[in-house]
Design brief:
Elements lengths: L2 H14 L7 H12 L6 H9 L4 H28 L5 H12 L5 H18 L6 H15 L3 E2 L12 H7 L1 E2 L1 H12 L6 E4 L6 E5 L15 E6 L5 E3 L1 H10 L14 H19 L2 H11 L5
Parallel strand pairs: 1-2
Antiparallel strand pairs: 3-4, 4-5, 5-6
Helix pairs in contact: 3-4, 4-5, 6-7, 11-12
Length: 295
Amino acid sequence: MSYFQDSNDKELDALISLLDEPNKLMFGKVRERILSYGLAAIPILENTWDSCFDDIIQQRIENLIHKIQFGHTYNEFRSWALDEKRDLLDGYFLIAQYAYPELEREDIDKMINVIKKDVWLELNDNLTALEKVKVINHIIFDIHKFKANRRSIKTIQNHFLNNLMDTKKGSNLSLGILYLIIVQDLDIPIYGVDLPRHFILAYTKTRKNADDKCSSEDDALFYINPFTKGTVITAKEVELFITQLNLPSEPSFYCPCDEVTIIKRLLSNLMISYNKQGFPEKVKDLEKLLGCLPE
């Protein structure tokens, strides 16, 4: 341990010992100084919480830890949003990490790479679009046993990547995002479609770029419903669904959307769930993350 590291640890210990400061102005200064240490302060704060029996100090420690963790997630998410080459898995992981700060990316990557490899081994250039989807569906839903969580569709945990990987159950959106993550490196033109109340996928004739304009005459060959084990549906069936919702038809209901639109939808769904569960502070956090995303 270097002299400077030892000195920093001593200063941090001294600052944490002042967490019982009754003067609000003085505590504010202590708080800001502790926050300046970032993630390095968390282990010491956690150790202090474990050995402390004062409710006020424990509450202050919990608030500090959350502030530091959220600040880290916010900065990472903002960098993701500003990057023109946004990776969907990166964005999805950061949102899961907001709720589960100790979540390790390596574990997630290992599970996803196994599925990707299984799909890749079964695909070849001679397969038609429908045959490729049949292979993908078989690997994801039959071999790896992912399925719709019909009993708890709106539960908060249903939205997070780590819960999806652990339980093999998810919403139409979480299953759809997983589907996209699996195919994005396999040169298969499958994209998300921001259909109201039900996220689906589109298999297109050509690959799309993030800045491609969408039109009602888009070149979708067919659509895929990840909530029903990848069932293939037609544009007519999508149109019927929209009609049943009594909504005017919009081109965006049929066209591929980008990663930003998908992550916005995920954050919006989470905000609705947290609001219903009575967690307004988490809704405010997610509003800040949402504010990082471009229009």
